[in-house]
Give the backbone structure.
Amino acid sequence: MTNHFARGMLKATELTSSGKLAEATVLIQSLLHIKMPDVDGSPDDTTIEGSFTRLDGTSARPADKPKAAPRPAAPKRARSSLGQTLRKIRAGGMPAHAPFRKGAVPVPAGADFATLSHANRRDQRDYKLYVPASRSSKPMPLIVMLHGCTQSPDDFAVGTGMNALAEQHGFLVAYPAQPSGANANKCWNWFKPEDQLRDRGEPALIAGLVGDIMRDQSVDPAKVYIAGLSAGGAAAAIVGAAYPELFSAVGVHSGLPVGAATDIPQAFSAMRNGAKGKPMTQPVPTIVIHGMADGTVNPDNGKSVVDQALSGFGRLDTTVHRDVSDGGRPFRQTSHNDPDGRSMCEHWEIEGAGHAWAGGAREGSYTDPAGPSASAEMVRFFFQHSQD
């Protein structure tokens, strides 16, 4: 990277942080030698030309381009404009969506869905904890779920359907809440250096609230897991890597690898183009799920999360399974298995799926009901692993 480019991107960071997105866009365009309309134009005025596949199965193409003959290719991602991506970075990463309709989350008789709080010397976070009616006297597994931008614990619980699986399998679910005071759009700050370290920032808060739950509930300490969507997926990867002795496995849905970015320009590049992340020092079993039509977080990031997870393991056997979900989404499941047949890392690539929780409920935001159930597959994967 040249000094001129580095200085320019630093200036773009300052402009973006101060809300001057149009000026930041023009500067980045000049640095990258591209010509695109202003960030504040019409919704389609900065979209890179090319066909794309919508979640409803229809396609779109610029009006001034002749219709090309059909060709047998995988669905393409809808690329976000430069201005749109800058706004996502400033907000944390999620595209516009229909907001979650607030209402009571279904809680069966005998179950509990309480609002709790954890504080350390530097900060505090609220969280929701689901205790199933099917609880037993034995210590139960715990799954920590990190929502995406603009979402809430209630929204994420409804959209993922994880509480219903908790009733079915007998485990606890914690949903930490990111407040708007920490990020304007309630995104986990995966691209900030202070929120990527053990015993610092958001990783320390999440590990701390897990400690509270383990103190107050009957939790099996060998079966604690963490998963998340988008910014929450990137944060889950960070927290799992920071506390490998606490979390037995990690689930990353539409997220990014650990170390993908340490500032806004790097985050912009990682979301748009993909990033490699940094080498891992201790392996953590990881399941990665990503829609191949994701126009918000490049699906190459999913492969990078897989490569990152595999870097800490020895020789594994690889199997590939292709199928179609009940909702009609073709997918490929690549499993990397140890000699005992346990999958230490899985990569689910879902054709035609965008930036949304696969198999989620329509009542939640950022869900794709047509996809295979990410929640069910994560639970299956998690329960293969323990700290024993």
